[in-house]
Amino acid sequence: MERFALVSFVLAVSGLGALAAIAFSFPSPVELTGALTADRVGQIVTVCGTVEGVKISKNNHTFFSVADEEGSIRVVAFNSSQLAPPTGPTCVTGRLNLYRGDLEIIADRLTDHD
Amino acid sequence: MIEILELAFLGVGAGVVAGLLPGIHPNTFTSLLLPVMTPLVATFTAPAVVVFIVTMAIANTFVSFLPAVFLGAPEGESALSVLPGHRLLLQGSGHEAVLLAVAGGVGVVLLSLATLWLLFPLLPFLYAQVQAYLSFLLLGVAVLMIAGERHRCAALVVFMLAGVLGLLSFRAPFASAFVLFPIFTGLFGTSTLLLSSKAAPPPQRHGPVRLPRGLLLAGVGKGFLSGVVVGVLPAVGPSQAGVLVHQATRSQGGREFLVSLGGITTVSTLFSLLSLYLINKPRSGAAIAVQQVIGAVGWEEMLLILAAAVFATGAGAGLTIGLSHRFAGLVTRVPYPKLSWAMIACLVALTVALTGWQGLLLLLTATAIGLLPPFWGVKRTHTMGVLMVPVILLSFGLA
To answer: Is the pLDDT confidence value at A30 over 80?
Structure first.
């Protein structure tokens, strides 16, 4: 039984290593907002564009929109104290979510758009 | 009205089918149904679709105990920790295990209905209080769970491995709406089936069973309390809340735990639906689906949800008891190992269909982590670190 436990442990750690390599080595490609559709909810996506309508709630959640040549999408950054409020052209990486029928991105990372 | 009744029966049927598949969490099944929601909403009225979702979710909580008890038993010597339901199955009392869980579910739903007047102001109040200390409360729950184990290091390793799996899988570029499917299937489905693939349960007793009243009352009370814990603390699952409440109180053993676990499983689904009205937040896959169909939940919608839940409780409990009789009779005649392997093949195929070949990596890793608790003699509920670690880090602003 100890052998099975060891095999399981090695498999678990190897699997996590492979997942880490995938998660950190392959950033999601930049997409236009027009390519984001409801059937992609749950996927990690990156969009770049102009930031509009920044609002910070009293719970420290930041809400804004990112607009590119194909449209705009709402972005939410929960507990955003560690994120600088976005200004100017910005790239947003996060999970695509559906909220009350509209698509939004739950932001994971904000970077300046060159 | 007829349309609502039709979809109520259809929902119970869907809940039964989903419940019979091991490793398919109700939330996963609801997410599988999301693509069907659009044609459903186009064909039927919104209240009827809501009734479908609610009856499916509630009936599922009862029926899911059938595969959990009859299909998940580990081979005698292969697992250090045997769950109470499996222990009864290996003693020839699998049917009693299911009855205890069903009694808990029905009892806690009745208790919830009787105390709605108290729950309505209490749940939003507790939720508001908890939000300020959420990160510390969740950390406290994790520490209590691990400290309650004899093999604390093993429990901590399982919790952390599952947590890392959660963190990595949510940020993997191939993550999709179904990312939780291979994770929960691996942690609780395939890992359990692998261990049970050599098991040979003895003939089962499936005659009338007398359930002691004191045990039922204690189990229902603890199930109700645990349901409130699940209702206000995100990422805390029914098993964890049950273990915590049983640690904090004097437990009468595995049978009482089964009653309360049956209660928590059903009532946490019910509370997650009621939370749409009480705190305007969806707390489960079913609640998200309801919110997508009708948006805001008012008083009338809440009454509809309650009525559908009561119907599904009766139907789900009755069907589960009936099916349990059949399962108890079949368990020695069905080739147990072949059935386990067939189930594993189905779950692998579903994983590939929903998440692609990359999902297999998640399934394999989650299965390996799910195998560790029984090998190391700790509770499998530590694998809920898969949700708790990301939520704790997020609440501390670290993720």
So the answer is: no
